Amino acid sequence: MDGLASGGTGDIGNGGDLFAAMVAIGRRARYAARKLALASTAEKDAALRAMAARMRASAPAILAANAEDVEEARAAGQPASYLDRLSLDAARLDAIAGAVDSIAALADPVGRTLATFTRPNGLVIERVATPLGVIGVIFEARPNVAADAGALCVKAGDAAILRAGSDSLRSASAIVAAMRLGLADAGLPEDCVQIVPVRDRAAVGAMLTGLNGCIDVIVPRGGKSLVARVQEEARVPVFAHLEGLCHVFVHEKAELGMALSIVKNAKLRRTGICGAAETLLVDEACAATHLAPLVTMLLDAGCAVRGDAATQKVDPRVTPATEEDWRTEYLDAIIAVRVVPGLDGALDHIAEYSSSHTESILTQDGAVAERFLAEVDSAIVMHNASTQFADGGEFGFGAEIGIATGRMHARGPVGVEQLTSFKYRVRGSGQTRP
Amino acid sequence: MDGLASGGTGDIGNGGDLFAAMVAIGRRARYAARKLALASTAEKDAALRAMAARMRASAPAILAANAEDVEEARAAGQPASYLDRLSLDAARLDAIAGAVDSIAALADPVGRTLATFTRPNGLVIERVATPLGVIGVIFEARPNVAADAGALCVKAGDAAILRAGSDSLRSASAIVAAMRLGLADAGLPEDCVQIVPVRDRAAVGAMLTGLNGCIDVIVPRGGKSLVARVQEEARVPVFAHLEGLCHVFVHEKAELGMALSIVKNAKLRRTGICGAAETLLVDEACAATHLAPLVTMLLDAGCAVRGDAATQKVDPRVTPATEEDWRTEYLDAIIAVRVVPGLDGALDHIAEYSSSHTESILTQDGAVAERFLAEVDSAIVMHNASTQFADGGEFGFGAEIGIATGRMHARGPVGVEQLTSFKYRVRGSGQTRP
User: Fold this and answer.
1) Is the four-CA dihedral A170, A175, A176, A178 of positive or negative sign?
2) With a cut of 70, which residues of chain A have pLDDT below it?
3) Would you call A291 helix, strand, or coil by DSSP?
4) N or C: which end of chain A has fewer CB within 10 A?
């Protein structure tokens, strides 16, 4: 066979050479991306609105496919929280379509003039944003990722190759089928959004090779084991964070009421997201006044506290922290607490243990805050704010495909702007180089 | 041993575990990069000026080391052009030091505010430029690359690990030794610039692994075989172009005098640089008037012409072009010439054969030029200008460490701005996320 059908019609099967079939998907994506790169803002936005409309119109088919996925996962003994992530209903599907509509309403990131300069010889050089190309998105149970990621890519002029987790393949395929109808409605290539139609895990390995140059970047959306595998094996760039081991540092000059409010929010608003705080550092200069109220607040709110010696003295409910605790992203109602010698102690601890995702300092001392903002080498550094703001939506990016902690190209929330590349346009009037 | 001395004192030797020794170099670079990232603009510029001064003061040692390199290369039978690239004299060394001084005079790319936005909740979010980290530069015979690349990295707040070609190792080591004296003069870590002190090619392989996370990006500076190996093996991002198969398209509405001037310059000003034109496309609509003068000009200027059937009819000196010619970067006084059916024919040819480096259209029709500028997917697209302007200096970047054709992070000339990353600074007043 020369290619798997990847139209999301649910034709799950495998045979012949999987890699060759994946490359055929890649080639179709590259071809579609070239067409999409030339589409106008109006054409792309019309396609996105048509995709949302087709998703709403396809609700019966999508929900039926989802019911099969959920039933199979239930029979396989998946826990309730997993089934909840996987499950769709009419309201959730409408919200997913609404998110696609709101992506249509974002500003077009393509064609922006990023810089203009005129050279002494009269050449006018512009740096302009272009689509990035073909994005491979590898995700797990949440079928809404298919819609979000596909729509963000289309907005940025990129073709998407989506690889769903086995448990959500029927749901994601039904959503992609609807999106492809919307693309066709608007006269854009259906292959702007494709889904890998097989459960074979070898398909992931194929994507990580870049499919003979047909994939420009991989975005893994899922747990740490998925991200670790992708970062280890990928031969193309990856936009991802392995973990969010986020720190809050309560400095000597922190206002206690604000510290109580922000620490509670940073740790406990939602414990399972990457921007949740995992380690609380308290300046020894304010430990006498701030440590006990903070620890008591956390314990009383149902958070387990693992502390150093000073923290253990505050409350008998505190259990000892080990070296491993400073390195652990709990993603749960557990926090590690350590008393550190001032700003430099906090900077040293963060340099040693941070995952370079998000760190926040709480202080009323502006000069200390500036040093923290300058010296902490993380994608996001904050002053007097909750680490849970580490989110593309909260940053005003409209939506994000993920958060990246690499130092290249995309760092922090990855929104539509980060899904673009750029080129230089040089306008002359006959110049030759001396 | 726990590490090779990499101070450029010329202590060439190997023993024990090369990879471990390379990782030790990487760790020193990472440590130095953390210090350098906090250096002020004034400190970095003072260091660069001190590096230039130390290079001038070390001229006797550098020229003596270079004489040894040249003698060995001559004894090994290297051709004159190679020996010329390798050779230094007082004037060349002074120019190399002058280039470092001019890098000191560039604007500091670190700390620039790239974007600022205030959220409805009062959070002020800034995107600010930061150093990229540690840059590995792998080069061949030209010892000036050590000075250029090291200075560009220091300007951008990055530590450099330099790997010289075997033939230039003594020269490059002597230059690096002088640069390290300058760094120390200015109170910055000497390890901001290191050179790999062994000729063992396994050192390159070690660098391409990223040295356990100690190298953030690799920049190969050399011939196609070096770049191909780096692109194939590197497990970290690479800023490079494999080749510059640049096209000039003479459109129907091109002004003939301008076309003659630009085509001659684009092909023949210097034939060995990546921005040199390799293929000339002529619109069939102006072939009757433009093709013969262009081909005759090229032939009379000493350029071999390999043409399609139409081009062969123009002059008996034209030899037939094969499919392979459309795919060949000659880097020599040879050009492939093809008559194409209008703008779309040129776009199709370029999409098929271009290396995505630089392409130029010559036309007086602004609408046609805009389509070309929009639709050609290359790092640099030009209108009525010579492709030989594809250069960081000509772009006003002051200097470049290379030209990249990838779509991520750095594309086109890689100057000091492209050697930076960024982070987000978020300033709050107690905000928690709802």
Assistant:
1) positive
2) 1-16
3) helix
4) C
- How does residue B15 score in pLDDT terms, banded at 50, 70 and 90? very low
For residue A364, the chain B residues in CB contact (below 8 A) are: none
Does residue B3 have a pLDDT over 80? no
Please say whether the beta carbons of B121 and B80 come within 8 A. no
Q: CA B164, CA B144: separation in Å to the nearest integer?
A: 10
3-state secondary structure (DSSP) of residue B386: coil
pLDDT classification of B388: cutoffs 50, 70, 90: very high
> What is the domain class of B246-389 according to CATH?
alpha beta
The string of pLDDT tens digits covering residues B263-307 is: 999 999 999 999 999 999 999 999 999 999 999 999 999 999 999
Q: E strands of A341-406, at which residues?
A: 358-362, 380-385, 402-404
Q: Does B75 touch chain A (CB under 8 A)?
A: no
A chain contacts of residue B385, beta-carbon cutoff 8 Å: 123, 426-428, 430-432
Nearest CB to B386; choose among A38, A385, A431: A431
| Residues of chain A neighbouring B395 (CB-CB closer than 8 A) | 117, 119, 125, 424
Residue A174 CA to residue A66 CA, distance in Å, equals 8
Cβ distance B417 to B397 under 8 Å?
A: yes
Across B236-273, b (16+ Cβ under 10 Å) vs e yields bbbbbbbbbbbbbbbbbbbbeebbbbbbbbbbbbebeb
Interface contact A377-B430, CB threshold 8 A: no
Q: What is the DSSP letter of B59?
A: H
CATH tag for B18-233 (out of 2.60.200.40, 3.40.605.10, 3.40.50.300, 3.20.20.70): 3.40.605.10
Cα–Cα distance, A134 to A233 (Å, whole number): 18
List every span in chain A annotated with CATH 3.40.309.10: 246-389
What percentage of chain B reaches a pLDDT higher than 70? Answer: 96
Strand-pair category, B420-431 with B124-131: antiparallel
Asked whether the predicted pLDDT for residue B14 surpasses 50, the reply is: no
| Confidence at B207, pLDDT banded by 50, 70, 90 | very high
Cβ distance A384 to B255 less than 8 Å, yes or no, reads: no
Cα–Cα distance for residue pair B368/B135, rounded to 1 Å: 41
Residues carrying CATH 3.40.605.10, chain B: 18-233
**B384 in reach of chain A (CB within 8 A):** yes
State the best of A128, A263, A407 to mutate against chain B, taking most chain B CBs within 10 Å.
A407
Residue of B357, B371, B425 to mutate for A, most A C-beta atoms under 10 A: B425
> Which pLDDT score is estimated for B208?
96
- Which residue type is seen at B397? F
Q: Is B117 helix (H, G, I), strand (E, B) or coil?
A: strand
- Average pLDDT over chain A, rounded to whole? 94
Reported as a pLDDT band with limits 50, 70 and 90, residue B16 is low
Please work out, in degrees rounded to the nearest 5, the angle formed at the alpha carbon of residue B296 by the alpha carbons of B291 and B301. 135
The residue type of A341 is: P
CB-side neighbour CA atoms (13 Å) of B64 = 5
Q: What is the pLDDT at residue A5?
A: 53
Selecting from A123, A381, A428 the residue whose C-beta is nearest the C-beta of B425 gives A381
Within 10 Å of residue A102's Cβ, how many Cβ atoms? 15
- Structure-block tokens of residue A346: 């906090």
Q: How far is CA B122 from CA A360, A427, B119, in A?
A: 16, 41, 5
Query: Cβ–Cβ of B432/A37 closer than 8 Å?
Result: no
Residues 6+ apart with CB under 8 A from B166: B199
Q: What is the pTM of this model?
A: 0.90
Which of B384, B386, B407 lies closest to A421 in CB terms?
A: B407
What is the H or E stretch that residue A219 is in?
strand A217-221
Nearest CA to A281 out of A314, A330, A246, A332 is that of: A246
**Would you call A379 and B424 a contact, using CB atoms and an 8 Å cutoff?**
yes
